[in-house]
Amino acid sequence: MSNGPYGLIACDCGALSLLVGGSPLALGLDTGDEPVAFWPLAAIQIGQGADELDVSADDEGGDAWGCRRCGERLLYAHDGTGMAILQGHPEDRGDLASGLTLSQQCTLEALGYRVLAGE
Q1: Chain centroid to CA 58: how far?
Q2: Dihedral of alpha carbons 103, 28, 48, 72, sign
Q3: Tens digit of each residue's pLDDT (9 = 90 or more) over 38-55
Q4: Other beta carbons less than 10 A from residue 36's beta carbon
Q5: Domain count, the chain
Q6: 3-state secondary structure at position 3
Q7: What digits encode the pLDDT tens for the residues 56-112?
Q8: Secondary structure (DSSP) of 61-114
Q9: Residue 10 included in any domain
Q10: How many CA atoms lie within 13 A of 19 on its CB side?
Q11: Longest dimension (CA), the chain
Q12: Residue 93, in any domain of the structure
């Protein structure tokens, strides 16, 4: 992880926190039209509570990362794209990284996400 900008994501009970470094690659909407941000999976590190991390695989080739103690899901990781999908948009929407590859965008759209262009 770089020494650049970072954010902290924590579950409701505070047992698990994740550090997110850098900038999202793109913004989008999930299948319920809720805002999401697409981050490089390599930008995510465990801040505290590694023993509380619950990683549950799904049939789409990804994993839901959540807190074992309170059950809150913090992100969805998709190894096939190298992406982490976090709920909500970052406050500084103008600070996006270089963007998604066409392959990543197609895979995310096949999973039901809508990538927002030029946001």
Answers
A1: 16
A2: negative
A3: 999 999 999 999 999 999
A4: 24
A5: 1
A6: coil
A7: 997 777 899 999 999 999 999 987 788 999 988 776 555 565 688 888 888 889 888
A8: SEEEEEETTT--EEEEEETTTTEEEEES--S-TT---S---HHHHHHHHHTT-E
A9: no
A10: 14
A11: 39
A12: yes
Does residue 63 form part of some domain?
yes
Alpha-carbon distance of 109 to 119, in angstroms, equals 17
| Amino acid making up residue 114 | R
The CA radius of gyration of the chain, in Å to the nearest whole number, is 14
pTM of the model: 0.83
Q: What number of other Cβ atoms are within 10 A of residue 40's Cβ?
A: 19
**In terms of residue numbers, what domain contains 78?**
24-42+50-114
Distance between CA atoms of residues 61 and 115, nearest Å: 19
d(CA 72, CA 13): 9
Angle at 30 between CA 25 and CA 31, to 5 degrees: 150
| Structural domain contains residue 9 | no
